[in-house]
Design goal:
The complex is a heterodimer. Chain A is an alpha/beta fold. Chain A is built from three helices and six strands, in the order αβαββββαβ. In chain A, the strands form two sheets. Chain A has a four-stranded mixed beta sheet with strand order 1-4-3-2. A two-stranded parallel sheet of chain A has the order 5-6. Classes of the chains: A alpha/beta, B alpha+beta.
Chain lengths: 153, 371
């Protein structure tokens, strides 16, 4: 599918999807957390789309809001889409898990939780993955201050 | 006998494998749930050498970011560096000279060869054959010497910079590379003689640690580990970068999905890597070894994603720029991290000794996982 076809198809699933992010290489679609499950399930199961390979999942702290970025690729149809979920509640960001659809999300979501503090609801095992369990704060947030472990040059 | 086994009440118990276990090749702790010797569940515990490289990148200039990446996958350092350079060049819309593309490809393939040699040696040792370790390191030494001459280091090497290379290749580079190929073409069949047909080895790898194609895709497993399950994911073929679009090589695919297939995939890849180097080594175009770049690199605002094929699989570099001299956010999608997530799926139902074989054929490098 071309990017334009993908855009039309996604708009039929989530009419409020936002395509204002410029296309650098892949098609970018921004949605709200409430639409995430619906869109993700359709992206994976619809035979025209069948995005079966999630090659990247990460969080981004935009200071005004949090964002989770999913890079999806279809091995059958050879097309790519970047799905972004904008979470307005930056203090306590919450979003549904996708690890039952793409199993690789289980580890990647734990990483985003560990470093950004994004809570993935219904995740089977949401614990910190790199840092110790009693670590305070989420280091990849832009306002994180650690005078002991981070050396400012 | 089976009847007796059924009637005995057994109890599940936990043991920790690592963080100082020799077969984890680094500081990785696996919490195993066992029933007797049978693995019921594997829970990896990571982070023993987490350095938060992504956080460090946010404070560094783009030239400095390059030098952090060879501390991730230290066996694929040139390819990691290349990944960042390609991303930055993509953002700058900079076309590097032809000479750079060809040299980068040769260096990348030499890196892949040296990584697979080390893997082969260590894998044999994991399964009880110390000879392979010595053979693997003997042949790897030649590549390390070539790298030392050209870029001055033997581990954590840096040669790629945004825009091209740090300096031109050493005058001996072509000759020594050709000597190495001649040497290694005779030695690689020896590798086959030692392990591939070895009964003890095949017994311990055939049918062990099965991963289906669907699971490989779902878990995001890439590299030779995934191609042994039939998942065609070679970035060099799918999204050619540098000079991969002008060389002739095969994507190695197997369908068995067990440890032996993963082993065969890597051995076959070594032949393909040598084929690539042979096609390019006499045809390095003349010209500049570096395109002109500004001393302070600022990427236009936007998002850039570049993937490359490291010896372990697909490395993705995701840079978000806000037009400053340092990136707003850098994410490294490291192959080892995703490959490790499939370990639980592969190891269930097998014995602890099989887990060692499975981990060996996944070719885990812990700094690449922890970042």
């Amino acid at each position: 599918m071309t990017n334009e076809d993908l855009k039309q198809k996604i708009l039929t699933i989530v009419p409020s999807a936002d395509f204002t992010d410029p296309v650098y290489e892949f098609l970018n679609v921004t949605i709200l957390p409430a639409d995430l499950r619906k869109l993700a399930e359709q992206l994976n199961s619809d035979p025209d789309l069948s995005f079966d390979y999630m090659f990247c999942l990460t969080g981004v702290d935009w200071v005004t809001h949090m964002m989770v970025v999913y890079h999806l690729y279809s091995t059958k149809n050879d097309h790519t889409v970047v799905m972004k979920v904008k979470i307005d509640d930056r203090g306590n960001p919450e979003v549904e898990t996708l690890c039952d659809i793409w199993k690789t999300a289980e580890f990647h979501e734990r990483e985003a939780y560990d470093l950004f503090g994004i809570k993935f609801l219904n995740h089977p095992d949401l614990r910190r993955i790199f840092l110790e369990d009693d670590w305070v704060g989420y280091p990849m947030r832009k306002d994180y201050v650690d005078e002991v472990n981070i050396v400012e040059l | 006998m089976e009847e007796v086994a059924q009637n005995i009440e057994t109890q599940e118990y936990f043991i920790n494998m690592g963080p100082q276990h020799p077969s984890t090749h680094g500081v990785l702790r696996l919490m195993l749930t066992l029933d007797g010797e049978i693995i019921k569940k594997v829970q990896p515990h990571l982070g023993y050498i987490h350095r938060s490289i992504e956080k460090m990148c946010e404070k560094d200039s783009y030239q400095q970011v390059v030098h952090l990446t060879d501390r991730m996958d230290y066996l694929g350092c040139h390819i990691n560096n290349e990944a960042v350079c390609l991303t930055v060049e993509k953002g700058l819309e900079l076309e590097v000279p032809d000479r750079v593309k060809v040299i980068r490809t040769i260096i990348s393939e030499l890196t892949r060869l040296s990584s697979h040699q080390l893997w082969w040696g260590v894998m044999g040792m994991d399964l009880g054959a110390i000879t392979t370790f010595l053979y693997g390191f003997r042949d790897r030494e030649m590549i390390t010497d070539i790298f030392e001459e050209t870029c001055g280091a033997r581990l954590t090497m840096n040669y790629n910079v945004p825009g091209g290379l740090m300096f031109d290749i050493h005058p001996n580079f072509q000759n020594r590379t050709k000597q190495f190929l001649e040497h290694f073409k005779k030695k690689l069949p020896e590798y086959d003689k030692l392990l591939t047909g070895n009964v003890i080895f095949t017994e311990r790898t055939k049918g062990i640690g099965y991963l289906s194609k669907e699971d490989a895709i779902s878990y995001g497993v890439t590299g030779p580990s995934a191609r042994a399950s039939g998942f065609s994911c070679d970035v060099r073929k799918k999204n050619p970068y540098s000079a991969y679009d002008r060389v002739d090589f095969k994507e190695i695919l197997f369908t068995e999905g067990d440890c032996f297939a993963r082993y065969q995939a890597r051995i076959a890849e070594m032949w393909e890597s040598m084929k690539i180097i042979e096609q390019l080594i006499d045809n390095i175009p003349e010209g500049e070894y570096k395109a002109k770049t500004k001393a302070v690199i600022k990427l236009p605002p936007g998002e850039y994603y570049q993937r490359v094929e490291t010896p372990r699989g697909e490395l993705g570099v995701y840079i978000i720029s806000d037009n400053k001299k340092n990136p707003y956010r850098v994410k490294f999608r490291s192959p080892g991290f995703s490959n490790l997530s499939a370990l639980d799926k592969m190891a269930r139902g097998f014995k602890i000794a099989d887990l060692v074989a499975i981990m060996s054929t996944l070719d885990l490098v812990i700094p690449d996982i922890d970042r």
